[in-house]
Amino acid sequence: MSADASADDRSVVEYGDRLHSPAVLVGLAVVVATGAAARLLTENVPTWLADTALADVGDAIEYPVYAIALGLLVNALLSSLGVRDRLAGGFRTEFFIKTGLVVLGATVVLSVIARAAGPAILQGLLLITGVFAFTWWFAGRLGLDDRLRALLASAVGICGVSAAIAAAGAVRARKEQLAYTASLVILFALPSIFVLPWLADLLGLSPAVTGAWLGGNIDTTAAVTAAGAIAGEEPLQIASVVKLTQNALIGFVAVGLTAWFAFKVERDPQGERPRAIELWHRFPKFVLGFIAASVIATLYLEQASAARAEAFDTVVKGLRDYALILAFVSIGLEFKVSSLKEAGWRPIGVFAAATLVNIGLALALASVLFAGFTI
User: How far is Cα 242 from Cα 315, in angstroms, rounded to an integer?
Assistant: First the structure.
């Protein structure tokens, strides 16, 4: 790569900025300040609207909505002032998402999943396989780049932005491909927070089937949590188990993509055979952090008192939520309409078609695997 290559031409794993740069520090300050505002709204809007006709709306809206909306507003403001691109080095979506995912691992108690998530594991395996395969095939038919195919298939098939990040590191996707995929995830996930619980009620689905359906096809953990909260306590619990099960499968998909791109897509038939160490270099290390956090939390919670377990859960979820708030703010700040225009209609068409397949397949699997299921 030449020295004057732009940052947007670099792969995700190569991209970086000097953290001591004044512009980067100002960009980070903007993210933190906007995140604090989003958290303030999350905590106080329900109280402010408690005695009004909008009380239900205030209770239903979760932090991803505020974080993304404020990120987009600040994005527009900075763009109008002509300083957005100078500060963009501080909009560290990948870092905040990875941090949130590692902390998220501490909420995945392995013993609980082993006891109660048999149907969730089977649904996750079948759903990821089916949706990933369809998305990869359809994107190929429309002539999309293999790296973008991997990001789109991972995002729709597994768990949204976090899976796209894992896939981006594995296949060495370009930064703008990750930003574009993340924008599509948010664009499609936000309406689902409100539409899918309404559809579940309209279809008369049981709480368990509703939760499994929401957890299986909404692309982000935060959006799943928001939709589950709207649907009710039992759907929320089932949705969380299903989504966390899919989250846990990120590592397997990342390893598979790493191997495929290292030994198949990028291999030079006339060149040297890639070494096995290449898999390790490309493997997204934060997945190991996710697993380690889960194991540590499991060991601690198995011997902790109820009071300490509750306090631990509160602290971990607070840290996770704030890291994800900063990630969603950064997504709003990084979003560029020009990127959508440049990519054209094909990736949007692929994502929309895959989302419909995901919704239908998840509903079918949930209806079979969670029929009569109780917590």
Answer: 23
- Whether the CB-CB separation of 189 and 223 falls below 8 Å is answered with yes
* H/E segment holding residue 313: helix 306-334
| Ranges of each domain in the chain | 94-369
- Nearest Cα to Cα of residue 62 among 47, 42, 76: 42
225-282 pLDDT tens trace: 778 877 887 888 788 778 877 776 776 777 777 777 766 665 555 555 556 666 666 5
CA distance 369 to 3: 54
Biggest CA-to-CA distance, the chain:
72
pLDDT digits (tens, 9 = 90+) for 155-175: 898 877 778 877 877 777 777
Torsion sign across C-alpha atoms 336, 327, 59, 231: positive
Q: What letter would DSSP give residue 119?
A: H
Distance of CA 349 to the CA centre of its chain: 20
Three-state secondary-structure class, residue 21? coil
- Its pTM stands at 0.65
Cα 275 from Cα 226, distance rounded (Å): 44
Residue 253's nearest CA partner among 179, 332, 169, 316 is 169
